[in-house]
Amino acid sequence: MGSGNEILDMYIYETGTLLEQLETIVLEAEKADTFSQENVNEIFRIMHTIKGSSAMMEFDSLTTVAHRIEDMFFIIREGTMSVVPEEDRPALFDVVFQSIDFFRGEVDKVEAGEPLDKNIDSFMANINTLIAKIKGEEPPEPAPAGAASPAGKSASAPTAAPASVAPAAAHGGFSHGLRVNFDEGCGMESLRAFMLVTAVKDVVDEGNFTFTPEGVENDPSTSESIVENGFHLLFKTTGDRDSAIGVIKTVGSVQGYQPYDCAPPEEKPAAPAAAAPAVSAASPAAPAASPAPAASAASPAAAAPAAQQQHPKETLISVNLSKLDQLSAVVGEIVITESMVTSSPDLKGLALDAFSKSARQLRKLTDELQDVSMSLRMVPVSSVFQKMTRIVRDMTKKLNRPAKLTLIGENTEVDKTIVDSIGDPIMHMVRNSMDHGIEETQEERIAAGKDPVGEIILSARDTGSEVIIEIIDDGRGVNDQAVLAKAIRQGIASPDAEYSHKEILNFLLAPGFSTNTEVTEFSGRGVGMDVVKRSVEELGGTVSISSELGKGMTTTIRIPLTMAIMDAMEVSVGGSIFTIPINNILSTIKVSSSEVIHDSSSGEIIKCQGSFYPIVRAKELYQLQDGCTNIEDGVLIWLEAGDRSYCLFVDELLGQQQVVVKQLPAYVNSFNVKNYGINGCTLRSDGSISIILDVASLYTAARGM
Prior knowledge:
Oligomer: single chain
CATH architecture of the largest domain: 2-Layer Sandwich
Number of domains: 5
CATH topology of the largest domain: Heat Shock Protein 90
Number of helices: 24
Largest sheet: 6 strands, mixed
Radius of gyration: 34 Å
């Protein structure tokens, strides 16, 4: 059972990767309004692979669609894009996009264990109609489109009964045969034969060869004939046969092959297996005209080309994410243990030069191990960014609102778990820019002095401790009055209060807030940007919005590079130890009480570099018994998170450490401790626990006191 699950996991992973490649190719091709010959070859290869792997998994609907798309690109490959009329190219792009969506939907069903969609008639009819247009034929009747075998061979394939195909083919000029035997007991011989035929089509023109038994692509009963008599390929020239032999040597499950001339061999060969080894294939039964290819008819597993083919696979492997999680956990424990050993109180006051030298070397190796284990989890955000290109493309067509997406820094790397989680927030913001931001008509943009085509910029950059993702559009921007009026109607804002531009923008992040007056396919369902805010905060990140009326809007998402290990500063408040992420610390300040300004609500403010910032006292916030009260006795840490900046008053700084982030137990989290500025905990070198502070929510908690 486990082996089957592994095969299924690999199928899902590989198909997903191929579909991402395919979508990127088609998006670029649509911009150029044509497929290059290289693109056509690549799409043909991708569809061929999906067809083969889906057939092996017995996902018939996926096999059928993939095969028909492959047929279409075979026609285009043979005649170049010139065979596709200009007016039919948009339909071609749409059909490929529809097929990508179909495959993704079906693969999701496979992953969820749900039954696949058997009714693909209308979709197949679209593909067949387009193929007919490309061929210059009359579109086929709708009924046959959904037949069990719409992926059948072209009309040039032989149609006689299997027993008569070979002799008839010999008279038709197909006088150079090749008998192929598959591994005994491999199963699905008819399907393997069909895949072999498709592979041969890559090197031999369809009109220059035929095969028997026919109907292997949709008639499983032909498997019995193939097991008993082998699968026969017949060619017009020995050159074509030699080319086919080169392909056969790279195909799996082929036990051996035997060339012959004029007519197929008698049905009395020793056993199919006897023709398999290189020696048997080169026996006197084989004609002298082709000793070289026959001599190389060894099993593919033993052939040199097969060994060379494995080389690229050895440079890149896919690893289950749970194993990487396990590795990160072990490395984290090693970091903690190393710190415990080197900082052991038993060693205090002892002169241990050799031990200190070894400890430094151990620390160096531990740091390298951390870096390697973290880098294994880092993947580029390009996989998420590329999906946004498709969303903008689809919305441009449906809303009839021309726009383009510009990607910047898509190779920036982030932890795999974070990449998986930021897709939805980014998608929501891109849709928001298209639906709310970009003007509805080109005339409106021209009147505003803008390019008729709207632009959305999706950028990512790495600051060393966090990744900053920005979604920028050059649309209408946020209308403060409209947002404030809606906020007042929803009871979020008070009609008597005055709000700054920034406070009004923050209403957009309130739960259920939406400025759309009607429900559309893309927005207006009361699911607002609070979903984005909540999703990003769960990753330890922040969201901020800036906008200028008539110029556009910018949404900035800041997320940590990784959630496993981070650089942090340990601080003390009385007998309690707290940990603050280094990337949130701007500087530390020693001040006197005369520099502190008191406001009317008993709050404290300090001036830093020309600006004023509130002071939050950790002792009062967490109601600790011990700790400094006089401002001169402690130290202020100037902190920043997103658009919030303030100073935290603590007793002293204990030093910078690399800490392993531990999530708090579910029981503790049930008390909403995150709302009180607590983001997790870490284990210190002496075995004690230190609370990790969440700089953003800590300030909110202090204001709510």
